[in-house]
Amino acid sequence: MATELADFLPQLDRDIRAMADWGKVADYIPELARVDPAQFGIAVALADGSMVTAGDAQKRFSIQSVSKVFSLACVLGRIGEQIWTRVGREPSGSRFDSILLLELEKGRPRNPFINAGALVTTDELLTGRSPRDALSEILGFLAAATGDADIHIDKFVAQSEAETGFRNAALANYLKSFGNLKNPVDYVLGTYFHQCAIELTCEQLARAGRSIAGLPGAPRLLTPQKARRLNALMMTCGHYDGSGDFAFRVGLPGKSGVGGGILLIAPGLASIGIWSPGLNAYGNSQAGTVAAEKLARKMGWSVFG
Amino acid sequence: MATELADFLPQLDRDIRAMADWGKVADYIPELARVDPAQFGIAVALADGSMVTAGDAQKRFSIQSVSKVFSLACVLGRIGEQIWTRVGREPSGSRFDSILLLELEKGRPRNPFINAGALVTTDELLTGRSPRDALSEILGFLAAATGDADIHIDKFVAQSEAETGFRNAALANYLKSFGNLKNPVDYVLGTYFHQCAIELTCEQLARAGRSIAGLPGAPRLLTPQKARRLNALMMTCGHYDGSGDFAFRVGLPGKSGVGGGILLIAPGLASIGIWSPGLNAYGNSQAGTVAAEKLARKMGWSVFG
Amino acid sequence: MATELADFLPQLDRDIRAMADWGKVADYIPELARVDPAQFGIAVALADGSMVTAGDAQKRFSIQSVSKVFSLACVLGRIGEQIWTRVGREPSGSRFDSILLLELEKGRPRNPFINAGALVTTDELLTGRSPRDALSEILGFLAAATGDADIHIDKFVAQSEAETGFRNAALANYLKSFGNLKNPVDYVLGTYFHQCAIELTCEQLARAGRSIAGLPGAPRLLTPQKARRLNALMMTCGHYDGSGDFAFRVGLPGKSGVGGGILLIAPGLASIGIWSPGLNAYGNSQAGTVAAEKLARKMGWSVFG
Amino acid sequence: MATELADFLPQLDRDIRAMADWGKVADYIPELARVDPAQFGIAVALADGSMVTAGDAQKRFSIQSVSKVFSLACVLGRIGEQIWTRVGREPSGSRFDSILLLELEKGRPRNPFINAGALVTTDELLTGRSPRDALSEILGFLAAATGDADIHIDKFVAQSEAETGFRNAALANYLKSFGNLKNPVDYVLGTYFHQCAIELTCEQLARAGRSIAGLPGAPRLLTPQKARRLNALMMTCGHYDGSGDFAFRVGLPGKSGVGGGILLIAPGLASIGIWSPGLNAYGNSQAGTVAAEKLARKMGWSVFG
């Protein structure tokens, strides 16, 4: 499998770079708007412990919403199923930053992978500790999951989002009005913006996902049941209102971020980090989604048979 | 595996029957409202060709929305991907009979497994043929899939729904107003009500799903890619606004009907027919969902690792 | 006042005819789609008993939703305030044929002047009598209100709408599914389509509104309180999601129809019938709305001071 | 008329105080939650220059959303009709603090009398000046309108709302995300909370409304057309999702606030200030609404005839 991949990834890299349409970088966070969309990297961690990469796989990028998987993992580790009293497990059918359902459903976000839900997860992580300690817990999880302590937060991106993240501020205040934030709004937002500004390379991201993929030799950071449930949530909710289409086309659980990253899981087989900063209409990486589909098809990786 | 199952299913049957809460039978279709909720059957078709059953597995029940899987399979076989110009592939986050999104999204249903989307599928199946021929095509598909021609439509149930199915009539008229039904409203509704009134036993349902599960020896009625895509749709959209929860708890693709049936697929491993007519708050079989969860956990069947 | 009007209306007629933009005739009812939009008529019934007209004031047009005022008047006469258990009194903020709020508000229409609410009113009128008798009651009310028995239903328009009125059929079925129609769906729709197909001239419409305007010498068909309340409903709900703008610009209660008619009331002063078949974006008469605004400003007629 | 009122108001005061149900005081602003609901005051400024009062008419209360009328009047005076590029003139059919439509309508509030719209008005008032100066302008308008400079802001109420007004903070941030606030969110919120915390007595409120009612001898602070348009907006939008019902029952333009105040206008006849702090389900004064209805009926004041 490693050999087949080693042949395939360079070709995939060429195919992606030959694509005319890279999508548009997120423009609502000024620091991200400056990134060149014509970049692409991929890294695949296999069950045999090998890592195969292509393109810009060593370049650091802002993981943004991919961080929601790791903050949820931390919360599940700490309080377990109690988190579901505060947030649901259903696809929202709405944009990542939608506030509409929050009014109809009285402040309980549909799932932890839309922004409203991730703010609740972060709030839970903050409870009983400082923003610094909450961020340390996520960074510590990532260090353990990747076996690599060289993981940082880009303060300029966090700052940029703090200055312009009005929609997240709206969501946080709205949650607070329903009593579904325990901590001060500013603490939650500050922690959330810093968590989103964590930088990883594709290779680090692929390593970070090994525990969720249940690969042999991966650090045991989650019980198998928790890993399966994270995968289930990624499958039904990982790509906002493009989740159904991603499941249909790619057939693997994944989580995207507006920085252009995608964590893709082939349970038991591989953990994949993909990055290309141009986005499609749903706010998911345009080239990254195409690459995920091509990779899954080529390797015959689909959870659906 | 067959041996393990042969031990487990009778115990599962006892456990389910010991449950206090059977849920409520669908009361909006008078014929279904008369069914005793305290019934339960399960049948598992395995990859080795064996069939293991328990409880009321030989009892016929109204498959209702489970039929949407088979009508979609027929349409995919006939016109393939063209169907997606008329209906989406995203979870709706709404009740099975919701009309709200249809207004916001101008007559294009979110997916083929909510009522609005299934009416479009049925309309496509009707195009160029009579209601009788369209129903024959679905029945023919089921006969081929099960290897059993003894499959019938309960005319009283179809009649009962025709007399009281005002919400489906609203959906069909609303679709027509947007030009997203080609055939007369009455033809589409009549065909749809008859399709929903198909009766199967759990064993027949399990046999019918073997092609979708891609079991060795199953009739080749679908390409592997089409089967995978049906599974993806069942995973993200198969249980209406309870789809995320089902994926989280059970970890397998499935499709429920208000008759209390569930078709559950363990890709490559098993095709499962479950029936218990009492429903939970989402309109999915209460005991059937519990049984699906227990079975998947016991057998270690999850697409998520 | 009659003299001032006699001077002004011909000028208004010329001004309107000089307008470049007549709007678009309703195209969802084929019979109405054939009407030439470049027509305009106005008739003003004054408190002194005089009638001043201009333009096509003697031409018959399809009153469509203006009929909702008269069917509500009949129902208020028959069962009084009981009707408010079935329909609200609030502006909907939605299009005339919206179904969205009906789902959120469980089958209770916001007000009797959107289609869903008018279907409930018509259903109430049908209760205990045949469609023919219900229509006779509305025609009888109009005959008494106008003092003119020469009022008819255009059967071709009613037929045309019956064949293509899928959105109204959706609304009626949806109401029925919530138990908020007592009579068979087809009876209600048939009666509703015929009621909408009543034809009046501007002069007849102006005469019909005199009781609602409370003009001296008008037939006493309504108590003063009922007349005031009809006016209040016309003010807040008479122009669908353009009601606020109409109140802002014109300052008088009114009710529009997609046939291009507007009944405009200056309480105690005048009852006005206006007709021009081209519609604006809200489905209200384009030129008719302009004429209403110019007339109200010229005459200093505003309920707001 | 003054004599009739002088007889009637004391009786109205007794009737109101005999009512069992005072409603509930607003509990989301802690300072307001402490107010005793069993209070009632009314003051009527008549066209002859006289003032008739009853009950707690000299007691100061927090005008809250009644201030939206005066801030809009200031903005109309300054930039006129341009404000309508940023906010609509239609009833919202939603609660005063709803955020749902703001998502569907991309950051343009339905009207200036719901919270979202009032934040836009306040933002306009802030443009080019400090919060202190913007507040001075509103206070100056009120001083001129009442002829009374003894008007103050209750800083404790403003502070209380600043600490708990998460829903308004959500609205302001959401507006900002669409570019529909020009000034910093904190400035707008701070100004808005202070504007809402203005205190008036019923008598001051009645005097303040004289210009809007167009009473002879009232300060000319608005053109007659602007006054009419304010009245039109109060009629269609002045009581949130209870506006239609208020128009139906009372028949006069009015604007309510969660402090329990109502400004009621009988154009050309009277300006009325009413206060009772207990609220009904729509967030409007419970006893105040009843008093408005009784007063209008007794005096025959209705704009609808």
TrEMBL record, chains A, B, C, D:
GO terms for biological process: glutamate biosynthetic process; L-glutamine catabolic process. SUPFAM superfamilies: beta-lactamase/transpeptidase-like. Substrate binds at residues 65, 115, 161, 168, 192, 240, 258. The lineage of its organism: Bacteria, Pseudomonadati, Pseudomonadota, Alphaproteobacteria, Rhodobacterales. The gene is glsA. This is Glutaminase. It catalyses: L-glutamine + H2O = L-glutamate + NH4(+). Belongs to the glutaminase family. NCBIfam families: Gln_ase, PRK00971.1-2. Pfam families: Glutaminase (PF04960). One of its GO terms (molecular function) is glutaminase activity. Gene3D superfamilies: DD-peptidase/beta-lactamase superfamily. Its EC number is 3.5.1.2. Keywords: Acetylation, Hydrolase. Homotetramer.
